[in-house]
Amino acid sequence: LMSDGEVRRGFLGVTIGDVTPDLAQGFGVEPKGALVNDVNPDTPAANAGIQPGDIIVNFDGKEVVDVAALRFVVANTDPGKEVAVDIIRKGKTETVNVQLGKLPGSEVASTRRSSGPTPSAKTEFLPGVEVASLTEDARNRVNLPRGMNGVVVTSVNPSSNAASAGLRNGDVVVGVNRQEVSSPADAANASKNAAGRVIVLRVFNQSGSRFMAVERD
């Protein structure tokens, strides 16, 4: 503050979440690090090639055990500095170099939530969960990026594992176990063919995007 006349904090440009035990099982990793739910366009993270689904485990030589740790170390790194970031992507550890930007607001990343739908022809996707083809209204409501496809959730049984994981009516599912889905049939087949006890979904709602782990019934 004394040298620059302002508080200068680093900026990465991602929305992140903790790697819960269920998500860790779904991704086949240890339950630590910061899971990248979304990457804002034209940000340091996007320019460095960081992708949704990457798990950040080390930042500039400092271990990242959870979301709080990443927020702290990014905010306390000078804008403009180039740092090495270790990520786990599809089970393999990679290192990317990121030149940090300057934090435009007061947070490095955010956490968010959802509301309701309106489509047609429904397909059972998971036990207690029905989905339908994506409509333009649903796409606009969750600000789904152009060129990205998915299915909209039309019904969730409140007693289902999906409801317990946080899936809600109106959510748009764009991926199942890192496989993109563009139709109800895609989503149902991806769910049916997924291996393991836990299915990892990438979901968009009015609060942004995140990954969630749903246990099979």
Please, could you describe this protein's structure?
With 217 residues, the chain is of the alpha+beta class. Helices cover 19% and strands 35% of the residues. The chain contains 6 helices and 15 strands. The strands form 3 sheets. Strands 9, 10, 11, 12, 13, 14 and 15 form a 7-stranded antiparallel sheet that branches. Strands 2, 3, 4, 5, 6 and 7 form a 6-stranded antiparallel sheet that branches. It has a two-stranded antiparallel sheet with strand order 1-8. β6 and β7 form a beta hairpin. The protein is globular and about 50 Å long.
Q: Please describe the biggest sheet, giving its number of strands, its sense, and whether it closes into a barrel.
A: 7 strands, antiparallel
Distance from first to last alpha carbon? 54 Å
Query: What is the radius of gyration?
Result: 18 Å
Tally of DSSP helical segments? 6
Q: What would you call the structural class?
A: alpha+beta
Low-confidence spans: 1-7, 106-119
| Total DSSP E strands | 15
What is the helix fraction of residues, given as a range? Answer: 10-25%
This entry's quaternary arrangement is single chain
Mean pLDDT comes to: 86
The coarse overall form would be globular
What is the N-to-C succession of helices and strands?
EEHEHEEHEEEEEHEHEEHEE
Approximate strand percentage: 35-45%
What does this entry show, briefly?
The protein contains 6 helices and 15 strands. Strands 9, 10, 11, 12, 13, 14 and 15 form a 7-stranded antiparallel beta sheet that branches. Strands 2, 3, 4, 5, 6 and 7 form a 6-stranded antiparallel beta sheet that branches. The radius of gyration is 18 Å and the shape is globular.
